[in-house]
Amino acid sequence: MAKEKLLKFVDVGQKFPEKRGAELRAKDFQEISNRYNDADANEQASRCSQCGVPYCTVHCPLHNHIPDWLKLTAEGRLQEAYEMSAMTSSMPEICGRICPQDRLCEGNCVIEFSGHDAVTIGSVEKYITDTAWENGWVEDIICATKTGIKVAIIGSGPGGLTAAEGLAALGHEIHIYERSDRAGGLLTYGIPGFKLEKEVVTRRIDRLKKAGIIFHLNADIGGDVKFSDLRKMHDMVLIATGVYKSREAKIKGEDASGVEKALDYLSISNRKYFGDDVPEFDNGRFDAKGKNIVVIGGGDTAMDCVRTAIRQGANSVKCLYRRDKENMPGSAREVKNAEEEGVEFVWLTSPAEIIVENGKAAGVSANMMRLGPPDSSGRRAPEIDPNGGQEIAADMVIMALGFEPENLPKLFDAEELAVTRWGTIRADHKNMMTNLDGVFAIGDIVRGASLVVWAIRDGRDVTQYMHQWAKSQKKAALAA
């Protein structure tokens, strides 16, 4: 009987949850898609081929048991589907919303290769866990007997939150130090509400607080809180800061008024979403209303910026990217959403200079590009086309060129903390420990700018490494 509920990809077509109309959704910061109803979720899950080698699982950084929870969903066994999903992911409903599934699980779906369009894995994942929250299936964290070991986690992004949950469940006392006024890191201030409504993040954080995890907000490590003191106060330290330093274009006029960094722009917008008093927005600096906006970059952060500007009521929004659409690093679905909402993409265009008038940005002078032979990443390398160039008017230019690590040894006043030549923390890949005894590091501050799902993976993995190290230290102390 169960087999009749599966392998329907030949007869049942791919169907994503219905999106709100572009004109309507561009007026607010609510998520753009409705959620599956039970029948649609079951039907789309039933399209899974249950293949012998599940490439969706292989290409998921968390190696989620995707075919298993799709099967359970198709059979209407939703609570079991949620429990299976939660075995490998600390926040499946968040991954279901913001993971680039078209590049990971869905992009490697076997039936996609056969020409039948991938199973809508991310949408089903979101549906499963949202249903679990509504029905009370997301249980409180069950903590083991207290070990007496104190752990400091620097950063409350997805990696830090995941490690906090795992370590608390093992009985350790967890203190999270966050330099912002709200927990969540990138999930709270870096991603707009139309991709991730903030209530979804808040309920995860509240669950951690209920488990006894202590959050120290507005904690400036290296300033108010010395890194050396943090090590003395705790048995172990985990650095999970992420990378927040904006990469520069290194062009003339980049420091002019009206040229803004992507993360500053998104953070200010999210603060307005929370209802905060934000003078930098209210005085017009970060408000795109009525302005001609140019965003430089082609990743998911650039997509967040252009779509935010649309919702703020920009007069026009243009995105400049040095390659073509096929070679864009961001999610193809995000590009499509942006196009639907009125964003204009100017392909094969690279900024040469910011046009400045009276000390303020007035536009971008851009080179036209062409694609040459593949570079080291395998993508065709952009090169300047000597026969082309253009000027694009702008009232605000937003730089979304990616992120680099801050100088943590300097910020933390911990020059002994080893870093790589790229500025990332040097950590042993076998156990994620830095060169400092009992200090571990995970996520983008080790990998460089990457995906939320990889930070979650690191947070899950480091939990066991830290626990084993703590036990070994305790054993050594008893032996002495």
Automatic annotation (TrEMBL):
A single GO molecular function term of this UniProt record:
4 iron, 4 sulfur cluster binding
Ranges for domain FAD/NAD(P)-binding: 150-459
InterPro entries named among the record's database cross-references: DPD_II (IPR028261), FAD/NAD-bd_sf (IPR036188), FAD/NAD-binding_dom (IPR023753), GltD-like (IPR006006), Helical_ferredxn (IPR009051)
Q: What keyword terms does UniProt attach to this protein? A: 4Fe-4S, Iron, Iron-sulfur, Metal-binding, Oxidoreductase
Limits of the Dihydroprymidine dehydrogenase domain: 25-136
Provide the protein name: Dihydropyrimidine dehydrogenase
Which organism does this sequence originate in? Sphingorhabdus lutea
